């Protein structure tokens, strides 16, 4: 779990005071910030002191192991080590910050640590400051990277942030469709967790609260207001906590295939898949379609048109590799329910 968290509008201004006590005077703090903030007001508010530096992260593509290794190598070469890494952005930047913090103290390539509990050394101090709500990356025990062989997280006890700063002011300015897709990631986390076979009282308590908050902002309210930003930020947190001790399900397993082969981003990929999962999540998909319509969102269609057998097989193999997700959704006999033929037919519909 994340041991320290502060919440509130304007709490970003406390960043300097919070990190200062963790400063080793010989080494700088490195801020990884989404490139979207370059030249914007938020850039000016990043509290740099001494040798501290901002590295802007281009989120056109989601984080890759190679990119993480490159940042780690250049930081090691320039400074030896750092006082800490602070991520300011969405899931892509938060995951990058976690991965760089781990890799500062781990040898080799980050791709060697994709999996469960492969990290042996504690990460350097790392702080997460989300600027868009939904993924739960601010609270989770993983950082998802695309590597040469797979898209998979570094899941370890050293992955969670040491400190999170939740400031609902920071989500201002997110484009409408993007905000919806990332918000729906949270909704889908809730449905997949709450209907899964791995569910337990711990996960359920967080999942129910997150779902209630998602429904409040997307179903029951007629307009989006400041309170909605606050509610969704907390929904993201609770949704992340819910899956931390259970698992996600079919939408995630299938969307990992889309993302691996076609580079489709996580939020929109989950929406493309979830839209087709009536058979497995009837109530959730019905409500999802209502929210899509109410918010006038277009879910991309026809993305698998014209793919070759080889490409379909590549997606199926990535998806089939996500065993715990399938098991959570469909039980131990999941392969009998979701045969490769059925999965192919599902991809063909998208
Ligand atoms: P993202 O981080 O890729 O950001 C999406 C877009 O929103 C980008 O274009 C970004 O520039 C923009 N943006 C972010 N904040 C903004 C702001 N305040 N104003 C204007 N624009 C802003 O999207 P995401 O959906 O948050 O994250 C997706 C990533 O998270 C994927 O890589 C996925 O694998 C990962 N993920 C991780 C976990 C986890 O537990 N670690 C869980 C789910 C998803
Ligand atoms: Zn997700």
Automatic annotation (TrEMBL):
<dbReference type="InterPro" id="IPR056798">
    <property type="entry name" value="ADH_Fe_C"/>
</dbReference>
<dbReference type="InterPro" id="IPR039697">
    <property type="entry name" value="Alcohol_dehydrogenase_Fe"/>
</dbReference>
<dbReference type="InterPro" id="IPR001670">
    <property type="entry name" value="ADH_Fe/GldA"/>
</dbReference>
<feature type="domain" description="Fe-containing alcohol dehydrogenase-like C-terminal">
    <location>
        <begin position="182"/>
        <end position="283"/>
    </location>
</feature>
<keyword id="KW-0560">Oxidoreductase</keyword>
<dbReference type="GO" id="GO:0004022">
    <property type="term" value="F:alcohol dehydrogenase (NAD+) activity"/>
</dbReference>
<protein>
    <submittedName>
        <fullName>Alcohol dehydrogenase, class IV</fullName>
    </submittedName>
</protein>
<dbReference type="Pfam" id="PF25137">
    <property type="entry name" value="ADH_Fe_C"/>
</dbReference>
<dbReference type="GO" id="GO:0046872">
    <property type="term" value="F:metal ion binding"/>
</dbReference>
<feature type="domain" description="Alcohol dehydrogenase iron-type/glycerol dehydrogenase GldA">
    <location>
        <begin position="4"/>
        <end position="168"/>
    </location>
</feature>
<dbReference type="Pfam" id="PF00465">
    <property type="entry name" value="Fe-ADH"/>
</dbReference>
């Amino acid at each position: 779990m994340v041991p320290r968290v502060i919440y509130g509008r304007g709490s970003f201004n406390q960043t300097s005071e919070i990190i200062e006590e963790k400063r080793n005077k010989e080494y700088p703090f490195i801020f990884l910030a989404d490139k979207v903030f370059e030249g914007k007001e938020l850039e000016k508010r990043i509290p740099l002191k001494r040798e501290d530096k901002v590295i802007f992260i281009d989120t056109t593509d989601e984080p890759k192991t190679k990119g993480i290794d490159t940042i780690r190598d250049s930081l090691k070469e320039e400074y030896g080590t750092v006082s800490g890494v602070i991520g300011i952005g969405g899931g892509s930047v938060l995951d990058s910050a976690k991965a760089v913090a781990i890799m500062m103290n781990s040898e080799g390539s980050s791709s060697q640590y994709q999996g469960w509990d492969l990290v042996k050394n504690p990460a350097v101090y790392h702080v997460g400051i989300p600027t868009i709500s939904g993924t739960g990356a601010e609270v989770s025990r993983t950082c998802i990277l695309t590597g040469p062989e797979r898209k998979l997280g570094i899941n370890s006890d050293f992955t969670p942030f040491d400190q999170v700063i939740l400031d609902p002011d920071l989500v201002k300015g997110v484009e409408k469709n993007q905000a919806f897709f990332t918000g729906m990631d949270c909704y889908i986390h809730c449905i997949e967790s709450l209907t899964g076979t791995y569910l337990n009282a711990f996960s359920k308590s967080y999942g129910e609260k997150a779902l209630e908050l998602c429904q409040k902002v997307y179903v029951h309210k007629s307009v989006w207001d400041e309170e909605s930003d606050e509610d969704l930020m907390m929904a993201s947190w609770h949704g992340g906590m819910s899956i931390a001790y259970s698992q996600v399900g079919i939408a995630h397993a299938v969307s990992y295939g889309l993302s691996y082969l076609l580079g489709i981003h996580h939020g929109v990929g989950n929406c493309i898949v979830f839209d087709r999962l009536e058979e497995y999540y009837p109530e959730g998909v019905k409500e999802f379609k209502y929210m899509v319509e109410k918010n006038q969102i277009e879910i991309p269609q026809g993305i698998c048109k014209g793919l070759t057998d080889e490409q379909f097989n590549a997606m199926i193999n990535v998806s089939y590799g996500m065993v715990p997700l399938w098991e959570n959704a469909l039980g131990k006999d999941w392969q009998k329910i979701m045969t490769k033929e059925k999965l192919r037919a599902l991809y063909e519909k998208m």
